[in-house]
Structure prediction request, 633 residues.
Amino acid sequence: MRILENKYGYFSDGGRTYTIKDWRTPKPWINVISNGTWGVTISQTGGGYSWHTHAMFNRITRWNQDIIQDNYGKYFFLRDNDKKEVFSLTPQPLKPDFESYSCVHGPGFTEFNVKIHGVEIKTLVFVPTALACEIWEIEIKNASKKTKNLTLLNYMELLLGAFPDWHREFTKTFITTEYSPQYNAIVANNKLWTAPVDGDSSWNKDWQYTAFFMSDTRPDHYECDKEKFIGQYNDISTAAAFKAKKLTGTTGTGFDQIAAMQFNFSLEPGESKKISFCLGAVKKEEFKKSAPVYFKKAFKETAKLKKELNDHWSEIFDKLKVKTPDPAVDVLINYWLKYQTISCRLLGRTAYYQCGGAFGFRDQLQDSQIYLTLDPEKTRKQIEEHASHQKKDGTVQHWWHPIANEGHFTGITDNLLWLAFVSFNYLNETCDFDFLKTRAAFIDGGSATILDHILKAVDKALERMSRRGLSLIGDGDWNDGLNAVGPKWKGESIWLSHFLYGILNDLAAVLKKTGHHAAQIKKYEAEAEKLKKAVLKHGHENFHFYCATKDNGDIIGAPGAKECELYLNSQTWAVINGIVDGDTAKKVMAAVKKRLYKDYGILLFTPAFSVADKSVGYLTRYAPAVRENGGVY
Prediction:
């Protein structure tokens, strides 16, 4: 059954997959597939890239962030040697005139099915649950009544390190390739890794991995020199390899590296041929031991890997399912919110727009709540990980990079409170109050219980209060783009005041359940009540809650303002955390519905800033209604 079908596609397999029937979507519709070690982005056109562990510091294949053309990826081509015709197996890069086309994005896999010139082709890529690789299966069927003499070619550009490789003429000189007949594989190494690894930012260290592109079928020819495949001054659409009888077999170093293979074969009418590939990377010292394992698992145990992948996601999906009158709610809750939060946000931490790889303190804490009803132990582990990125003074890193093991402390003021927020939600779901006794390290030495980490965060937030009793915004709150409102530590955040008020109440409730001293409980209850009074005295005009005040006292988000008059988070969180209730809460939300609800989503605020304002922050430098500048964000 086709669910929520539009002119581009529909949810399929009961909502578990999405089928794209017209590849000319408004923007690239991508699948972010990751098992936490290996990851792939792939769009409905065939564009995308691969990485190991970290999408920025450990990119495997090259990619150009151009979502208009979306023409950089790992591509396969088929040549009809009798007709001298060449077409790509996906819409990009050659834009073939397919007789039929579909792209199915599903949990852990993407599949293309096309028909052209009497040939039917299925292209599948998936990432196994526990291997650092992706597996491709290309199945080609001769659907005509004549014998087909065909050549299958593939093309991918190798990066092997930090993205973007902005000085390609320099970095290409360190990559080496060779062909391994034992594994039908192109094997690649890099003698220079420019990423900061374990605190070493020097440009004098090896890339710690060996990459491989292997096939279950011995290629007739192969190529690692981009110039020989493309041809000087050509592009992929006019590649010299499409006309050449065979690839040159060039490997080595000193040139722009690719991984390309060529397979020649004939198909009788109705006959099919399947060729499989595995792209992966392992630690350099483990390659000799790992190569035969990957070859066996990828090509001899493929069915087992597919079943493990399917079972893995079924186990996650089946733990909580709903049936409502709205099919959109059903497919989101039952499948896609779970899959995208886990695969993209927690495991991949990258996509097409932001190719990061870092952990955000607030970001992945919030995301980890997807596990509360599925596998709360994973939420617990995420909380413990984030607690270890806190200093003893309560402040936390805004973000940090795995591989590099480095992070960044900022004056953004909301991050530390999400440790409390998510911990309390974990406790509400599990009643695992012993968790509060778990010890976690401080990044500047020593350790403490999770409860102590939470208390330090809350106490630091209480130190950061204005003379009027409101939360100071510092270098930004949940909206990072308000980064110039309070650099002198005088500007206030109304949303953060709402947020802290809720945290204080929840903390007092937790302390009561864990038998803490009445004096400590009363302290946080009193702080909450004091904060609520300050918000109701200084944070609104007739319950139109402000966004913030600047260091000089000017209000952002006041009624009648020409820009940022009504700010979403200040209104909604006044209701969520009980600053207002009853008819007043209805009035607050009515204003949100009237001014901020749009057919395409809810605006962050309105009107958007039209002129850059140094006293507000970088969000004013976006075009109006883009991202944090009054967009749907």
